[in-house]
Design a protein that fits this description.
single chain; 156 residues; alpha+beta; Arc Repressor Mutant, subunit A; Alpha-Beta Plaits; 2 domains; 4 strands
Length: 156
């Protein structure tokens, strides 16, 4: 388990802003958070080295790319053997439709968020790929009607 890192109020302001707009320059960031550009740069480098900040990415709009169907799929496994879980998780890691995957407690073993073009492509993924995995016992799906809130930002 990773230990938590001590952050102060300026770090918190930096983290809020940089999560909102990851390509912000140190000068622009400094102006927004009320610190010098050099201080912001040093703090960013420290937060990166401590593992608080990861890679900088640009977020693509799923709808603009034709991925208008967002589905939540719960998966129940036939086997919980380590090698079966590993093989299934590798399948998921290489399935571009699966954008989020969580190992969960309760009635099901995994929760997936799947993005596809439409219901036909979702059905093809489910029937030809996901349900073809020998370790999958059953699934249950629900479909998003619309997104009310989506964020990648961690509260600080």
């Amino acid at each position: 388990m990773r230990k938590s890192v001590h952050i102060d109020d300026i770090d918190r302001r930096i983290l809020r802003e940089i999560q909102r707009k990851g390509d912000m320059s140190s000068a622009d960031l400094a102006e927004v958070v009320g610190a010098s550009a050099a201080s912001c740069w040093r703090r960013l480098k420290r937060l990166e080295s401590e593992g608080v900040l990861g890679d900088v990415v640009r977020l693509a709009d799923a709808r603009a790319l034709g991925k208008s169907l967002s589905a939540f799929c719960w998966v129940r496994m036939k086997s919980h053997a380590a090698e079966d879980r590993k093989a299934f998780e590798q399948f998921l890691a290489h399935s571009e439709e699966v954008v989020d995957c969580y190992s969960i407690s309760g009635e099901f073993d995994y929760q997936l968020r799947i993005l596809t073009e439409d219901m036909d492509s979702y059905e093809a993924f489910m029937m030809k790929r996901l349900l073809a995995q020998p370790v999958v016992a059953s699934t249950s799906s629900q479909f998003a009607l619309r997104c009310i809130k989506h964020t990648t930002a961690v509260p600080v």
